[in-house]
Amino acid sequence: MKISRAEVEHVSRLARLTLTDRELDAMQDEMDKFLGYVEQLNQLDTEGIVPTAHVVPMENAFRKDEVQPGFTREQALANAPEPDPAGFRVPRVIE
Amino acid sequence: MASKYETVIGLEVHVQLTTDTKIFCGCSKVFGQEPNTQTCPVCLGLPGALPVLNEKVVEFAIKTGLATNCAIAPRSIFARKNYFYPDLPKGYQISQFELPICEHGWLDILTENEAEKRIGITRIHMEEDAGKLVHGETQESSRTSFVDLNRACTPLLESVSEPDMRSADEAIAYLKKLHQIVVYLGVCDGNLEEGSFRCDANVSIRPWGQKELGTRAELKNINSFRFIKQAIEYEIERQADLLDSGSQVVQETRLFDSQTGTSRSMRSKEEAHDYRYFPDPDLVPLVIDKAWIAEIREGLPELPEAKRLRFESEMGLSAYDAEILAADQALAAFFEACVPLTGDAKLCANWVMGEISRQLNEGNIAITDAPVSPTRLAGLLNRIKDNTISGKIAKNVFEKMWQSGQEADAIIEAEGLKQVTDSSAIEALIEEVIAANPGQAAEYRAGKEKLMGFFVGQVMKASKGKANPGMVNQILKDKLSG
Amino acid sequence: MKLYDLTLTELRARLDNREVSSVDVTRAFLDRIAATDDKINAFITVCEAEALAAAKAADRRIAANEAGALTGIPIAVKDIFNTSGILTTCGSKILNNYIAPYDATVIARLKQQDAVILGKLNMDEFAMGSSNECTAFEPVHNPWNTDRVPGGSSGGSAASVAASQAIATLGTDTGGSVRQPAAHCGVVGLKPTYGRVSRYGVIAYASSLDQVGPLARNIGDCALLLQTVAGFDPADSTSVDIPVPDYSATLSEDITGLRIGLPKEYFIEGLDDDVRRAVDQAIATYRNLGAELVEVSLPHTDYAVAGYYLIATAEASSNLARYDGVRFGLRSAESDSLIDMYTRSRAEGFGIEVKRRIMLGTYALSSGYYDAYYLKAQKVRTLVRQDFTRVFEDVDVLLTPVAPTPAFPLGEKVDDPLQMYLSDIFTIPVNLAGTCAISLPCGFSDGGLPIGLQLIGKPFDEATILKTGYAFEQATEWHKKKAAL
């Protein structure tokens, strides 16, 4: 196995996904196959190759510092599972 | 007692920028608005929304970089810092990671023993702020927090220092210096309480002579210089106690409580962060050419350091006066406007640091809103210089100018405060006073010269303070000895 | 001929001549959708009231002789575009109650012309899939054979055009999601050069690869829709500020002497016989039309799928972090603590393929693996791009199959993710290279399933692939075949 069960669980926590034991098993199996497949990239010598983040060369896209109309509070909260004038309600954050 | 340990401090400062709009969208960012009234698809992190960089933020970052002796990167990029938190709408913060806009800067500070010391600045980068979490306070909302995204996407500069500071005082000196510069540049309003200038301190200690750094604790978001000093000093003691008792310092984030003057660990149960930084594909590389840097350099204001030196060398102010005036850009401007109108820098400095500052503090007003303009103040000072009024009377006149907004001359005229410089009038007054106090006059003449003060006082009282004190002195001497 | 069987060009003429009104045409399409969509399931949302209101506005504009190319034309859009006031699901349960509060730039451009938006089309959840089976709203069926997949992820966009439910549609293409379903459904689909069309308001899958593309019954209609949506948008930092040429104006240009490259890596062992035959015939057609056909090589083709899935899943894992149950979308009923709100909302809201890609992408970016996976893939992208740059010094267009097989049966690959990923083998390199490509019908399998031909162009040279495709279309009848429903 290229990825351990513990790593799969760690990644699921990082990604904030609850997975059942069965899902974790299946995920481990599929991730393992995928990682096996991408191993072919190791055949490629990429020493000195510049990574491409944008396929089309681009730079310096700016906007002016000018205020644009935004949402009203009602609009901002319209899709919220638990809207409240005081803000989006979430389970209490403990620090 | 000298400590067994050397303190090592590095500072991370978040500087909120005074742009009109957010860093990646056109929402305004005024402090203290109703929750979620300054939002749009971008800063709410709605599906499909895309960021576009506010050009002014780049300009402010370059300005700050130049003023702190940084190298401006010809090419820099934005990266995503991935983590989940309710105040972070997209689940990632757009920041800079591998290629920040400014690097390798420094600031010189004065240490406790007045020595100059250079503090390195590792980097300054641009990023977006998170929103605000408010925790429910009522019975009903005690298990709830509320997310307000007005502040989300507000532009920040994060400046990271080298671990070059060796005491809380050095840390404060560095912070004040940086604060002064960003306020001078106009890129930050400098308001610590509203969170416009936020400091995290990394503090560690090590036995003297040890090369490796000790384990550090990070002190978060402390909102006044005084508390930062307290927090650092508390932390130094806490770590020293730990080491003395044979324990270890744990790397952690600690929250300072200004009420108790102590701090507590913010150890969260979550596993260690893995921010998974990668270049943000929604934003394009930022390329800054030499011409742009030159243009911004050209437009930089004179910085406090240069101003202080000029006040000393060109205006002949003392180092102390120059420091105080140069520290505040508006105060310095007021002072500089006064000087050519009076030709007396020292007098102007005294009045700006004295009466003007006192009134501003008492009224809690900005110097730009002062009812007495530099021109009017100069008008008053010129009346001292040409002996129309004494310095003492001038203070009363100034008080009235501040209240009424009138010019000095009008008040002097209306209240008849013009100094008496007519020698015959003064002579007449003096003769009356001597005649009324024959006993004291005799004692004086017998050698009790201390009584001179008594006679001056009597004459000034008789003149209602308007007699020229110099002339009174001179004529009294003549008359009494005659 | 039924109104819904007209091409865009034909319908434009009838609208402008006042032979029909947009309201009549819109009603005809709404009826067609009602009559056919129980078999196809192309639509997630039909916007009847909004469509008729837009048709009325269009008719007024036509009456005032102010019509644009799309004024009054009924089109439909993938449910990946934010459409103000309308449910926008992205094929996901996690957005099954999200009413978009704003319009994507391409939607705004359609509205400016008073185009009629009939509704929102089914898709693989978050555009992740090649069969349209990965949707929270039941799979889409291929109009040519309803036991077959329509392809994906823009399966609804392709199937609805094939089923005459809309004149043309918009989809998105990250690794072939416009071209592959277009091929499987026998319609034309174009993936523009990255940066050509604004992504603002298009729900992101993989930001550095996503691009909006039109689907239509023929090349001419496709060009008209592209013309409307293409062009610089200051709201998208990655949109490119270069002029959009008049695509219709150059469509019928002669292609004699045009150099067409045949990349040998695309004509491989595993290629389905029917596909090979159809593509070979297309090559013969081009030879007859006077084009020069030359074999070329794109040596890094084999690495493209691996590179693509690393980049796409990494970006997706970050793009999909915003679905957290705080500001919009699904929040699990069991959200007593913050961590439960996150993990349960996401577990309940995302489908298995989305979870799989989030997991892969999170892993590829995680500490200790970034260089081996994500960075390596970004370097592979450089190599793939260089392949294309090099061959385009020699040829004007590349000709390849779109997919290794015709549409496969529903259910065949759904449990084998890696096989599903490999069905995009011919489309993915174009996304990595960022250039443009078009898929157009070039024949049928023995079983009566459509086969697509891919023409790949130089960056920002959509005009050349459009005219190359148009020449083929003029010489063949494939695009006139209609699925019997």
Structure notes:
- The complex is a heterotrimer of chains A (95), B (482) and C (485).
- With 95 residues, chain A is mostly helical.
- Chain A has a domain at 5-42: Histone, subunit A (Orthogonal Bundle), CATH 1.10.20.
- Chain A has helices at residues 5-14, 21-38, 73-77; strands at 62-63, 88-91.
- Chain A is flat.
- Chain B is an alpha+beta fold and 482 residues long.
- Chain B has 15 helices and 17 strands.
- Chain B has helices spanning 55-67, 168-185, 225-244, 290-298, 304-315, 319-327, 329-342, 345-363, 374-385, 391-404, 408-415, 423-436, 438-445, 452-462, 469-481, and strands at residues 5-16, 53-54, 71-72, 75-76, 79-82, 92-95, 102-110, 116-128, 132-135, 144-148, 155-161, 197-207, 217-222, 252-257, 262-265, 278-279, 286-287.
- Chain B has a nine-stranded mixed β-sheet with strand order 3-7-8-11-1-12-13-14-15.
- In chain B, α9 runs antiparallel to α10 and α14 crosses α15 (469-481).
- Chain C has a domain at 3-256 and 470-480: Alpha-Beta Complex (Amidase signature (AS) enzymes).
- In chain C, α2 (22-40) packs antiparallel against α3 (48-63), α5 packs parallel to α6 and α10 packs across α13 (371-391).
- Chain C has an eleven-stranded mixed β-sheet.
- Chain C is built from 16 helices and eleven strands.
- Helix content of chain C is 39%, strand content 13%.
- Chain C is α/β, with parallel strands linked by helices and 485 residues long.
